[in-house]
Amino acid sequence: LYSATFNILCSFYLQLHVIFLSCLSAPPRSKYFSVKCTANVQYSISPPTSGEDLSPTPLNGNSVLLISMSRASESENDSKLSVQYYGENKEVLGRAVLHLTAVEISLDVDADRDGVVEKNNANKGSWKWGPNGHGAILLVNCDSEQKFWNKKPDCEQDYVTKVSDLKDMSVMVLRTRGPAKLPEGYKLTMHISQGHAESVRVFRSTSPELHKTLSKFIYNNFVKNYPLVLSSEVLSQEVPYLGGVAEMKFHVEGLRFPDNDFDGLVTINLSLLEPIATDIPETPIFTDQVVFRVAPWIMTPNTLQPVEVFVCNTSDNNPFLKGMRNLVAKSGYKLTICPKYVNRGDRWMQDELEFGYIDSPHQQFPVVLDSPRDGNLQDFPYDELLGPDFGYVTRVAKREHVSSLDSFGNLEVSPPVTVNGKKYPLGRIIIGVAFPTATKGRNMTKVVQDFLWAQKVQEPIALFSDWLYVGHVDEFMTFVPAPNRKGFRLLLASPDAGYKLFRGLQNNGHGKAKMFEGLRDEKTITVDEIVDDENLQAQNNYVQSCIDWNRDVLKRELGLDDEDIIDLPILFMLVTEGEEESVLRAVAYYPDMVNMIVLGKNLGIPKPFGPKVNGRCALEAEMCSLMEGLGLSCTFIDDFATYHKLLGEVHCGSNVRREPFDFKWWNLEM
Ligand SMILES: *[C@@H]1O[C@H](CO)[C@@H](O)[C@H](O)[C@H]1NC(C)=O
Ligand SMILES: *[C@@H]1O[C@H](CO)[C@@H](O)[C@H](O)[C@H]1NC(C)=O
Ligand SMILES: *[C@@H]1O[C@H](CO)[C@@H](O)[C@H](O)[C@H]1NC(C)=O
Ligand SMILES: *[C@@H]1O[C@H](CO)[C@@H](O)[C@H](O)[C@H]1NC(C)=O
């Protein structure tokens, strides 16, 4: 494009993206030059010259011509720029003419996050968090347009079967303006790196109505053909140039969630390629770039509005189901009972799955995270929940030992908090692991931990839960909504509060009151017997120290004061674990009231069967008085025989799908 031997370097600085079709050469002995051009063309000379450009200007050894064009060409070579060369006496020696064709190309996305693809956003090529941030968003297409037959997450197939699937994808528009066709040999290609192609697919819409904005015809909306443009097998593909003023629509599908090997960002490029010579690859003369971030999986804390409650019918659990049915009906939500042929006797609905959601400016739907636990309920998330606008994701533990800590009773999330000025408007994920100094112990598998940390927007907190026989954080903590302070309270199981209550009963003359009255197959025990059992007291001192350790972590990591925490009177006892000889771990001594279901202002609490005072259970009375101050209503559900005795309670046996946050995750300041 330049001819260094003739001392004029034609460098082209172009606002529009231009194809250079011919160039110029200055005759030998040239001493002056002048420039002329058509209306569409702007140029400048560097270093700047004095005087008018139309009169001969001295030709300097390193003069450079900078050219730009203000509008796209309507036809090939429709603009011109000519340079006239003069000799010593300003006699004309020759003329060079540049034929110019300008093509406007813009690959566009919804970089301002309003659900509409705007035109050539200046920030579309990068991604920034926060309300003043920018950058397009992509969903993992993890729901299934098929509800029954041949069901699988849509992202597992590399074609579009239903037009309804397009709403789960992000729209990308290629806007072009220029002559009817590109000059011979030039072409447009879309390309992506191998690493990024593992995470997305790009389909092109061939629907005619989408092609030309100037089209006068209204075409049928139903579209059959969405050719695959980019995938992990096709990293680069030519896309048609439509000519004139045109828009071509693409649909971008996310394939995987952020993880420890994927930060969530994906770049897609579109280039105009220029032919050099036959057998030599074309070179890009212009590249436009867009960046997407894959939406994270987000958990929903107890303070969000419930939508649907899930429990299992194991045919032996009728009292529990009756209690849950009443509570859910009273609260006005949907109750879904998983039948026995699906749960195959596995009643731990909390443990097999965690409900969350994914969100973007154009689409939002719930996504179930399936635990590697894989009890008899293992097919429930995939078979019963995956469907249109209901996504599914799982992590499979390879080689790693899956323990009880991989059940999702051990995966919770706090309400929104602010910690030392740092805001967590989506709360923080809470998991339980082995004590940090333990040389061996149970942990949540690395694949699940990696997944949770990689979502970034609910930065996890690891608590110590391995001291519990079952090992789940929901055995000693939960959150309930509150009208004041931070909008919630942390409830903690507290043996100290338990002993205080029992001693109080003893001191007030109720030492002979009995626990577990009215339960079949359960021996009663008096308040005196509990208080006087030194062994039990020692065990509970240990449990209290484990909970206190977690209490400190929670206070620090959630920015809580003591006033934000309520201690519930709950006693534990230590038992030996079957296989691992001589490891003592804790289980609840009576139904573990903190292991509750929270449905708005209604709490479904395991019925503790505590000692009665004046006909009323003292534990229930204490629980109610603690909760009533927060405007919460307690319903006690009998889970004794079919949950408590199997080392779980109401929360372990249920699950709640909740409304998503109003807060948009991309508005987080990171
Ligand atoms: C445009 O100009 C180039 C260079 O002169 C030439 O090769 C090409 O054929 C021209 N195209 C048209 C359509 O005139
Ligand atoms: C996309 O374009 C950017 C900037 O032009 C470049 O750094 C990157 O390597 C390109 N990626 C691919 C896959 O072409
Ligand atoms: C539970 O399942 C049994 C059959 O196994 C059925 O008779 C009973 O009605 C079911 N209970 C509820 C509450 O759905
Ligand atoms: C368990 O997981 C925690 C949190 O990720 C980690 O810090 C710890 O090292 C793990 N412990 C073991 C014994 O693997």
UniProtKB/TrEMBL annotation:
<feature type="domain" description="Protein-arginine deiminase (PAD) N-terminal">
    <location>
        <begin position="22"/>
        <end position="101"/>
    </location>
</feature>
<dbReference type="GO" id="GO:0005737">
    <property type="term" value="C:cytoplasm"/>
</dbReference>
<dbReference type="InterPro" id="IPR038685">
    <property type="entry name" value="PAD_N_sf"/>
</dbReference>
<feature type="signal peptide">
    <location>
        <begin position="1"/>
        <end position="25"/>
    </location>
</feature>
<dbReference type="GO" id="GO:0005509">
    <property type="term" value="F:calcium ion binding"/>
</dbReference>
<feature type="domain" description="Protein-arginine deiminase (PAD) central">
    <location>
        <begin position="103"/>
        <end position="274"/>
    </location>
</feature>
<dbReference type="Pfam" id="PF08527">
    <property type="entry name" value="PAD_M"/>
</dbReference>
<dbReference type="InterPro" id="IPR013530">
    <property type="entry name" value="PAD_C"/>
</dbReference>
<feature type="active site">
    <location>
        <position position="474"/>
    </location>
</feature>
<feature type="domain" description="Protein-arginine deiminase C-terminal">
    <location>
        <begin position="285"/>
        <end position="667"/>
    </location>
</feature>
<comment type="function">
    <text>Catalyzes the deimination of arginine residues of proteins.</text>
</comment>
<feature type="active site">
    <location>
        <position position="351"/>
    </location>
</feature>
<dbReference type="Pfam" id="PF08526">
    <property type="entry name" value="PAD_N"/>
</dbReference>
<keyword id="KW-0963">Cytoplasm</keyword>
<dbReference type="Pfam" id="PF03068">
    <property type="entry name" value="PAD"/>
</dbReference>
<keyword id="KW-0732">Signal</keyword>
<dbReference type="GO" id="GO:0005634">
    <property type="term" value="C:nucleus"/>
</dbReference>
<dbReference type="InterPro" id="IPR036556">
    <property type="entry name" value="PAD_central_sf"/>
</dbReference>
<dbReference type="InterPro" id="IPR008972">
    <property type="entry name" value="Cupredoxin"/>
</dbReference>
<keyword id="KW-0378">Hydrolase</keyword>
<feature type="active site">
    <location>
        <position position="652"/>
    </location>
</feature>
<dbReference type="GO" id="GO:0004668">
    <property type="term" value="F:protein-arginine deiminase activity"/>
</dbReference>
<keyword id="KW-0106">Calcium</keyword>
<dbReference type="InterPro" id="IPR013733">
    <property type="entry name" value="Prot_Arg_deaminase_cen_dom"/>
</dbReference>
<dbReference type="InterPro" id="IPR013732">
    <property type="entry name" value="PAD_N"/>
</dbReference>
<feature type="active site">
    <location>
        <position position="472"/>
    </location>
</feature>
<comment type="similarity">
    <text>Belongs to the protein arginine deiminase family.</text>
</comment>
<protein>
    <recommendedName>
        <fullName>Protein-arginine deiminase</fullName>
        <ecNumber>3.5.3.15</ecNumber>
    </recommendedName>
</protein>
<dbReference type="InterPro" id="IPR004303">
    <property type="entry name" value="PAD"/>
</dbReference>
